[in-house]
Amino acid sequence: MLKDLNIGIIGIGTVGRGVVKILEENKEIICARAGVNLNIKKGVVRDLNKTRDIKIPLSTKIEDIINDDKIDIVVELIGDVQKSYEIAKKTLQNKKALVTANKAMLAYHRYELQQIANDIPIGFEASVCGGIPIIKALKDGLSANHIIALRGILNGTSNYILTQMIQNNQDFFTALNQAQNLGYAEADPTLDINGTDAGHKLLILASIAYGINAKPQDILIEGIESINADDIEFANEFGYIIKLLGIAKKQDNSVELRVHPTMIDKNKMIGKIEGVMNGISVIGDRVGETLYYGAGAGADATASAVISDLIEIARGKSSLMLGFERTPQTLLKLKPKEEIQSRYYFRLSVDDKSGVLAKIASILSENHISISTFLQKEIKHKNAAKILFSTHTTTEKCVKNALDQFKNLESILQNPYIMRIEDE
Ligand SMILES: NC(=O)c1ccc[n+]([C@@H]2O[C@H](COP(=O)([O-])OP(=O)(O)OC[C@H]3O[C@@H](n4cnc5c(N)ncnc54)[C@H](OP(=O)(O)O)[C@@H]3O)[C@@H](O)[C@H]2O)c1
User: Roughly what angle, to the nearest 10 degrees, separates helices 156-168 and 172-181?
Assistant: First the structure.
């Protein structure tokens, strides 16, 4: 007879329901792997009148779970930052293990939680890329390595939208609409399309890969809202594909962290990840490149990760939350945004008259930016032109200065747009 480990789930929505169902349907193998009987004692929701096809006792009082002496593990699946943080703190203060899928909360509060928890286990595999076990890969599988670089498609909604724009020539709003109709995008998709959700996940990964304690406002985050057909055409012309990437790179004792639309070689594995799928490439100094691919969201994939945390906790082998048992002697620092180096793509709409190109060239030269490839397209019936070009490697600071100067040029017709290019 297996001993019982009692679980309380706060939030029985998409993921919570998935956890209840999988624990019911795969009970035998899960309990065999865990060595205990994982028993859901209670769930908490906002509205008891909603129809839910699950058979666990429900309450609307969070205290019914976090103050219940018989509950060993609290699974937090409500999604709010502040409220979830309060739940997480009280859970740990009451000496119960915590499992959460809440990347937004962890992007702000993971270090505080680690400190409160001390040796109480916290599982958060589901917070980054749903079903892909990337946290365990970084924390355990790759733990002998310095992580040289990590590049990931960390948000399925934006990857779906970009795939539609590239493969089916849809504009951004048509693709977004379609993603919403198919249930891939929330009614309010802001955090998915403006890069914030991917930024939250990158910050969590960076803590495990590098021990970097940064918050969303500290890193460069840009979304996919301004990408248009010209950018896609330019990328295609020069052998690139556009992906919203989360990028972490170590150089000497600093780490750069950034999320933005990126032109990458279309033959790279990560360039071939389409639709709502997620993928991550991690380069370790000893192991070389490793690749992870799978569903980044959805009830089953995310619940699968939540349950893997429950099993690990049941086995009693959890390591410290963010994977560093003590502070390394060489502390890595977050590289300031303006020092980040990259190649860039520029899109400018300009008056089609003489002297304009010379002014653009002069601003680029003043800012030590040199052009690598160049395309000019006439805008029909408007006496205007689009100028599209890529640069050699330069810094964010130089590009920002050039953009500020471009904006003041009379002959520039719209805000200039830039995108970064990754050749590695
Ligand atoms: N959905 C995914 O594919 C996915 C993937 C990765 C990570 N996540 C993360 O997983 C978490 C849960 O996401 P979800 O998609 O399952 O959310 P969801 O479908 O909106 O479900 C949220 C659940 O929490 C309950 N809830 C909300 N506020 C509450 C409160 N103040 N008190 C009590 N119950 C409350 C809701 O109750 P009612 O049912 O009564 O409204 C609902 O059952 C989020 O942190 C999300 O970022 C989700």
Answer: 130
The domains of the chain are located at 4-130+302-315, 135-295, 338-422
Distance, in Å, from the CA atom of 103 to the CA atom of 84, rounded to the nearest integer, reads 11
Flag whether pLDDT at 379 surpasses 90.
Answer: no
For ligand 1, pick from 61, 65, 77 the residue to mutate: most ligand atoms within 8 Å of CB.
77
Q: Whose CA is nearest to atom 8 of ligand 1?
A: 101
CA distance 262 to 113: 33
Residue 326 pLDDT more than 90?
Answer: no
E-assigned strand segments in 165-273: 220-221, 240-251, 254-265
Residue 2 has pLDDT above 80, yes or no: no
Q: Which of 301, 251, 246 is nearest to 276 (CA)?
A: 301
Q: Which of 324, 376, 374, 388 is nearest to 352 (CA)?
A: 376
pLDDT of residue 283: 98
CA of 11 to the centre of ligand 1 (A): 5
The superfamily (CATH) of domain 135-295 is Dihydrodipicolinate Reductase; domain 2 (3.30.360.10)
Q: Which CATH class is domain 338-422?
A: alpha beta
Residue pair 116/87 in contact by the 8 Å Cβ criterion: no
The DSSP H or E segment spanning 341 is: strand 341-351
Query: CA nearest 384: which of 356, 415, 418, 343?
Result: 356
CATH topology of domain 4-130+302-315: Rossmann fold (3.40.50)
pLDDT at 318 > cutoff 80: no
Q: Is the shortest distance between the CB of 303 and ligand 1 below 6 Å? A: no
